[in-house]
Amino acid sequence: MLGMNPLTLLDLLGQVDFQRGFVVGLAATIVLLFVRQAGWMLVWGVAAIVALAWTGMLRGNPAAPGWGVAAVGVTAIASAAAFRVLLRQVPAWAVGSIFALWVLGVWGTVPDTERAIVTMGTTAGMLPALWPALRIRVGWEGALVAVGCLGFVVITDGAARTSSMVGALGMVGMPVAAAAALEWLRTDRRPSPWWLVAAQVVHVIVSGRIAGQTHQAAVAVTVVILSALVTGAGLAFGVSTRVPRRRKPR
Q1: Read out DSSP for the chain?
Q2: pTM of the entire predicted model
């Protein structure tokens, strides 16, 4: 998907740090089966922190830029707001999948992947919890913790290339643009969850393989913004389905 061949993915599965993250993710999935209201995203954030600590990766990078923490904070707040809107519009599995694609995109974008490998394992272990039949709450509030943890991975593993940090953090641009457009439209029609996930796939590819590889921060920001507007806002304006029954915010 991101220019990585199947051998790269097979190699990932064989790495100890991925496997440890996967074990923690599976344990977190079991916890969610008993505490469904805890929220998939919050539990993911806690599980990822535990996995990073277990692998010895919960440490900073001296080369990380000073603006990184502020950028992660803004991204986390924007993500929580966007997910809150989207969870009123589409099924929980779609929003969870958007975040999972973001984790995949980070791994495929940052130049140093030692921490991203761990979060990939955690995500793989927790994907079964997004199965619609389980009816597990995703929880937009947990985005503050989940994105904070993922942002830590971005600014540490991506410190060697500024554009990779811009591209990786900018992968939330599609849901943010879609949520903003839906709020502005105030329509009773809803975006298709399948198209929403497909739009995130496109945006992650553009943000990771184009913006994240430019080596120029200004170009990366421009590419991320344009991609977010085309995929997110374009989806909200152009692709909608029948109105489902009203759901409570999740």
Answers
A1: --S--HHHHHHHHT-HHHHHHHHHHHHHHHHHHH-GGG-HHHHHHHHHHHHHHHTT-----TTS-TTHHHHHHHHHHHHHHHHHHHTTTS-HHHHHHHHHHHHHHHHHH-S--HHHHHHHHHHHHHGGGG-GGG-----GGGHHHHHHHHHHHHHHHTTT-HHHHHHHHGGGHHHHHHHHHHHHH--S-B--HHHHHHHHHHHHHIIIIIGGGSS-HHHHHHHHHHHHIIIIIHHHHH--BPPPPP----
A2: 0.90
Per-residue pLDDT of the chain (250 residues; tens, 9 = 90+): 444 556 676 778 889 999 999 999 999 999 999 988 899 999 999 999 999 999 999 998 888 998 999 999 999 999 999 999 999 989 999 999 999 999 999 999 999 999 999 999 999 999 999 999 988 999 999 999 999 999 999 999 999 999 999 999 999 999 999 998 888 877 666 788 888 999 999 999 999 999 999 888 899 999 999 999 998 887 776 655 444 444 444 5
